[in-house]
Specification:
The structure holds two protein chains of two kinds.
Chain A (H helix, E strand, L loop, with lengths): L1 H26 L5 H6 L5 H11 L5 H13 L14 H36 L4 H14 L3 H15 L15 H7 L1 H27 L2 H8 L4 H13 L1 H24 L5 H11 L2 H29 L9
Helix pairs in contact in A: 1-4, 1-14, 5-6, 5-9, 5-12, 5-14, 6-9, 7-9, 7-12, 9-11, 9-12, 12-13, 12-14, 13-14
Chain B lengths: L15 H24 L4 H27 L5 H19 L40 H37 L1 H15 L3 H11 L4 H28 L2 H8 L4 H37 L11 H6 L5 H4 L2 H28 L7
Helix pairs in contact in B: 1-2, 3-4, 3-12, 4-5, 4-7, 4-9, 4-12, 5-7, 6-7, 7-9, 8-9, 9-12
The chains are: A mainly alpha, B mainly alpha.
């Protein structure tokens, strides 16, 4: 319980620092927001009035506290670029898309990684193992934007199996949504697939050397049953650790994939906002993404205790 | 044990001559596949498969020939990766002196053909882009930018992160927890998001991008250096140095740093490949070095939309450069980690 409290305290400190960093960073923006809203060629008085309206004349700390207070109440200001939508609305509209893509990517990666790893581990050093190992290592070196472009070229434009640049909300048409988001999700999955397979394979090989596996073999259990029933569960523990580590990359590839496939997710929002210098939108999006990311990682940390009793008392 | 004079090479069931013959056969077959794959009038996909098969066969053949000659199986992939990196770095360094086509000045490429497909023996061996700029020259200059940025960033990140890590790991207590919270705060923003946020503010110049990338290397370097310092600080040689009256600074600089250096070095190699990808992603998103100045990322982004469909080489040429480089750094980094950093070798 005490460790949990310390963790929560740390979490709040980290979020405060991140939000301050994000705020300061974007406040250092060269150029005048008033100019970018009103456009060129207005009188100095008009610019001054706009600056005052935006609260840009106040002290930085005051502005930060103002902004952060607003953020806590669910108000992140309005976007600079017309139509000047509410930042929170934009984020709430985009977030489900990103979450769906990331979740689908992760799920697809797991569904492919588990059988591949089991196949590899069933005969370490064999031909299958070496081929899978080499191709996973190669996949690891293909950046997601390149993989995405290649997948589009082959499956969308070349073979015409999948549409591109369309998004169907899962609430409207679940099957259509899965179909339309298949290629982007596959792009996200590839990167994760490679790491998952490699780690799970190593763990499985370790587990397969344990005595109880020998006992199971001696009892005459068929190899597939040993792999699936006896070895998989104890080996899956490090996958969860890996999930935490790979979350940063997952967010990154989701952003790139959304930009590449022109999907209405957080990636498109944040990249376009950054290209246009729409700083309230960048600030808000980065804060929301960081907060989700930190919370998910904290959740993964806390879940160890439930999954593996041995880790419960380590920090005491 | 009795050893026959005509011993078979280590780990092989064949004799030396047999192995050499198999190797030579594979080598020739592989080269033939490469030539056919490159020049045959086939669909791009079939060509790619043939070339890939050629590369695999050639390297297997090469490996067996060396195996037969030296009596021990070489790690051919490591040699190939090192060779690629040496070649790339040399070419990138010498780029202004080499007889390359035009890489950036659109006006002087007005007479050149646009979207020319790769033709090895022509004036533009790897083809041209929509302005008629030479893709080989652009890829080489892209390598220059990419390598300069990532090496600079890794150097800054390692020096700053490494020294903070050693200090935090040696003093523990107060310093450690403050450093810990800042490291966590930096790690709390996913790397690419941090880069995009920085990209909003910073002028996309080599120096600024290198600094931004250094910022994402710092936290992981701090963690690595700190963990290793903690492990080494408990060893006898540190105690001995302290007992002989060494100051804390001396212990950190002369005793701890050299030991922490090896795992940090292997991390550096892996980090370079991460940063090359990060830089390329940033350019791809339009937030890095701006076109027409070439980087692999913005060259690949030229293939967005329908261009890739009609002129696949616009993406495939810089894509291959990027892939080979990232692959090589990954492979060498992984080997280095297995050798010098037992803990992180697993992932």
């Amino acid at each position: 319980m005490r460790t949990a409290l310390i963790r929560i305290g740390e979490l709040i400190a980290v979020l405060m620092i991140v939000s301050f960093g994000v705020f300061m960073l974007v406040s250092l923006l060269p150029g005048d927001p008033a100019v970018s809203i009103l456009g060129d060629g207005r009188s100095p008085e008009e610019y001054a009035a706009k600056r005052a309206e935006l609260g840009l004349d106040d002290n930085v700390i005051v502005r930060y506290l103002d902004w952060f207070g607003g953020a806590l109440r669910g108000d992140l200001g309005a976007s600079l670029i017309p139509p000047q939508n509410d930042v929170v609305d934009r984020i709430l509209g985009a977030l489900p898309v990103s979450v769906q893509l990331a979740a689908m990517g992760l799920l697809m990666a797991l569904l492919m990684a588990i059988p591949l790893a089991m196949w590899s581990a069933s005969r370490p050093g064999g031909l299958v193992d070496r081929i899978i190992g080499a191709s996973m290592f190669a996949v690891l070196s293909v950046p997601s934007f390149l993989a995405g472009l290649l997948l589009i070229a082959v499956f969308a434009n070349g073979l015409g199996w999948f549409p591109r640049a369309q998004w169907v909300r899962i609430t409207e048409d679940p099957l259509g949504s899965l179909y339309h988001s298949f290629l982007p999700a596959l792009t996200i999955a590839l990167m994760e697939l490679a790491t998952f397979t490699r780690v799970l394979r190593n763990d499985l090989i370790g587990t397969l050397n344990e005595d109880y596996i020998l006992a199971a073999k001696a009892k005459g259990m068929p190899p597939w049953r040993i792999l699936v029933v006896d070895a998989l569960r104890p080996s899956s523990f490090s996958l969860i650790t890996l999930l935490g580590i790979s979350m940063g990359r997952l967010v990154g590839s989701t952003v790139i994939v959304e930009y590449l496939f022109a999907l209405p997710g957080m990636g498109g929002v944040v990249v376009n906002a950054a290209n246009q210098g729409d700083y309230p939108l960048v600030q808000g999006s980065v804060l929301v993404i960081a907060a989700i990311y930190v919370l998910v990682n904290a959740g993964i940390d806390l879940s160890y205790g439930y999954l593996d009793p041995r880790t419960r008392r380590v920090h005491a | 044990m009795f050893m026959p004079r005509k011993q078979t090479p280590e780990g092989s069931s064949l004799t030396r001559t047999q192995l050499g013959a198999v190797g030579a056969g594979l080598l020739i077959a592989g080269l033939a596949l490469l030539v056919v794959g490159w020049s045959a009038p086939l669909v791009l996909f079939a060509k790619a498969v043939l070339v890939l098969a050629g590369v695999v066969t050639t390297s297997q053949g090469l490996s067996r020939v060396v195996w037969a000659v030296r009596g021990r199986r070489p790690d051919i992939l490591v040699w190939l990766c090192s060779a690629w990196l040496v070649l790339l770095i040399t070419v990138a360094l010498l780029a202004p002196l080499l007889p390359l086509g035009e890489h950036v000045d659109v006006a002087s490429a007005l007479t050149a053909p646009t979207y020319q497909t790769p033709e090895l023996l022509s004036e533009h061996p790897l083809g041209t882009n929509n302005y008629g700029l030479d893709l080989l020259a652009r890829s080489v200059y892209g390598a220059r930018t990419s390598l300069v940025i990532s090496l600079l960033a890794v150097a800054i990140g390692t020096v700053v992160g490494g020294s903070i890590g050693v200090v935090a790991g040696y003093f523990r207590a107060g310093v450690d927890s403050v450093v810990g919270i800042f490291t966590n705060a930096l790690l709390a923003v996913p790397p690419l998001i941090l880069l995009i946020a920085l990209g909003t503010v910073l002028d996309p110049k080599i120096r600024n991008i290198a600094l931004a990338l250094a910022l994402i290397t710092i936290p992981s370097m701090i963690r690595l250096a700190r963990a290793n310092t903690i492990a080494f600080a408990q060893r006898e040689f540190v105690l001995a140095a302290r007992a002989m009256g060494a100051t804390r600074l001396r212990v950190m600089v002369r005793e701890l740093t050299p030991n922490v250096m090896l795992p940090v070095f292997s991390m550096m190699i892996v980090m370079i490949s991460v940063l090359i990808v990060a830089e390329a992603s940033l350019s791809f998103l339009g937030l890095g070095i701006q076109a027409p100045e070439p980087t692999w990322g913005n060259m690949i982004s030229e293939g967005e939309g329908g261009t890739m469909q009609d002129f696949p080489h616009v993406v495939l040429v810089p894509g291959t450069f990027l892939f080979l480089t990232v692959f090589s750094f990954n492979l060498l980094g992984e080997k280095a980690q297995k050798r010098w950093d037992a803990r992180s070798a697993k992932i």
